[in-house]
Design a protein that fits this description.
- The protein has one domain (2-422): MFS general substrate transporter like domains (Growth Hormone, Chain: A, Up-down Bundle).
- The chain is built from 17 helices and no strands.
- The protein has helices at residues 10-26, 29-32, 34-40, 45-73, 75-93, 99-127, 132-159, 166-182, 188-196, 200-213, 226-257, 263-289, 294-314, 318-331, 336-347, 352-379, 386-412.
- Helix 9 crosses helix 10 (200-213).
- The chain is globular.
């Protein structure tokens, strides 16, 4: 693709994408090994969900200032701090024997992910300023690849009576390699800091001004209002993330308990989900390259996700769940969250770290609230309602983006559904 040609920061971007590959594993490592961890911690599946919820708490606490840290100290140091957090997470999971310590470890994993959110997304938009949305959804591509591969590894280990610890050791080793690789990565803000002998914060402001002056931001006819546009887009992050995160965490358990699928078949659903997400990354990039705006996709995708989840709820069987896993992966988990963050930074093209922190803070609420609700539904024997909940949050995400589409035309002077190549 043209965005990668003659860009001296491609290696740095690759290291950032590799952290997203590891994030794809982190997001499902507990749910995919739920029985193993329940045994290790002398707990049950509901207990494992309660541990997953602590990932959300870690995200919520750290996302409030990770973007600010990124704007102040630079993208690379904050991203590397997240890698260190993942080293602690995967290393500790190899030996954790009680649920209290597991919650602390899960908290660290969530904190590390928030450090990623506050640094990686702004860094990619600065490396590829003319292709912000495309650069952002490639994040999801790497998450999806690991999301396809990891459940297959877990399933293979289970089918061959091999220890689940191997599925923890693999990401630990990969994280160590990524940490080493980061030492050789360069980023635009770091080069400006070094060349001009200024602080990291000053370098980022200089970079933003340079990119704005060079025409890499979208021209506005009217100035957006953060209290309206910003808050609405930030709210979208909560609902779109909740829709796919909830589905991702419960689909295997739902398949076994509600649809009566085998364990091997139920684990394959996570792979179908991630295949759908990966396909969305490729096709969405192609759509946008041909002039379809990210605004259009952000309206259409959540609507389809909501209809799919509602269909699964009304007709829960192996066919609807299998096809639905791929569709929800495509429409909800295939980069819509990342495109929403890019859209926020189209509306407000200064202070990307701060904007991203606020956006992912709202998202992080979903990573706590959804597993907590799932745990409550499981404990109260209302787990059949989980897909109805998933449909509701997807429909709300659709309604939010329908509102933003109206604001988009008001601010940028063109319809969010028009072809960008013809304007």
């Amino acid at each position: 693709m043209d965005m990668f040609k003659n860009n001296k920061y491609n290696y740095g971007a690759f290291m950032l994408y590799m952290t997203m590959f590891l994030h794809g594993i982190q997001a499902i490592i507990l749910s995919q090994n739920a029985d193993y961890f329940a045994s290790q911690w002398n707990s049950d599946v509901a207990g494992v969900f309660s541990v997953i919820a602590w990932t959300g708490i870690g995200k919520i606490v750290f996302i409030t200032f990770s973007g600010v840290l990124s704007d102040k100290f630079g993208r690379k140091p904050v991203a590397m701090s997240g890698v260190v957090g993942y080293l602690i997470l995967f290393g500790a999971l190899l030996f954790t024997q009680n649920i209290t310590l597991a919650k602390l470890v899960s908290f660290i994993g969530g904190a590390a992910t928030s450090l990623y959110d506050g640094s990686i997304n702004p860094a990619l938009m600065e490396i590829y300023p003319d292709n912000k949305s495309t650069a952002s959804i490639f994040n999801k591509g790497f998450i999806s690849v690991s999301g396809v591969i990891f459940p297959l590894i877990v399933g293979y280990l289970a089918a061959n009576n091999m220890s689940a610890r191997t599925s923890i050791l693999i990401p630990f080793i990969l994280t160590a390699l990524v940490f080493i690789g980061f030492f050789f990565a360069k980023f635009p803000d770091g080069d400006i800091k070094k060349e001009q002998n200024i602080s990291a914060a000053e370098a980022i402001k200089t970079l933003e001004s340079n990119q704005s002056a060079s025409g890499t931001t979208i021209n506005k006819k009217k100035q957006p209002n953060f209290a309206i546009d910003g808050i609405i887009i930030i709210a979208f992050s909560f609902f779109i993330y909740s829709s796919f995160y909830l589905f991702q965490q419960v689909v295997s358990i739902y398949a076994i308990n509600i649809v009566q699928m085998s364990e091997v078949a139920s684990r394959s659903l996570a792979s179908y989900y991630q295949i759908g997400a990966f396909a969305a990354v490729i096709l969405s990039a192609m759509f946008m390259a041909r002039g379809i705006r990210d605004m259009t996709l952000l309206v259409v995708y959540p609507l389809i996700a909501g209809i799919t989840a509602l269909t699964i709820y009304l007709t829960p069987n192996e066919v609807t769940l299998t096809i639905g896993s791929a569709i929800i992966g495509f429409t909800a988990a295939g980069g819509a969250l990342q495109m929403g963050n890019s859209l926020l930074n189209q509306f407000f093209d200064k202070n990307k770290g701060r904007n991203t922190s606020m956006y992912f803070f709202a998202m992080s609420l979903g990573s706590y609230i959804m597993p907590t609700l799932a745990s409550s539904m499981e404990a109260s024997n209302n787990f059949t309602l989980i897909m109805l909940l998933d449909a509701v949050v997807a429909f709300v995400a659709f309604a939010i983006m329908a509102i933003i589409a109206i604001r988009y035309k008001h601010i940028f002077g063109v319809s969010g559904f028009s072809n960008s190549k013809k304007n």
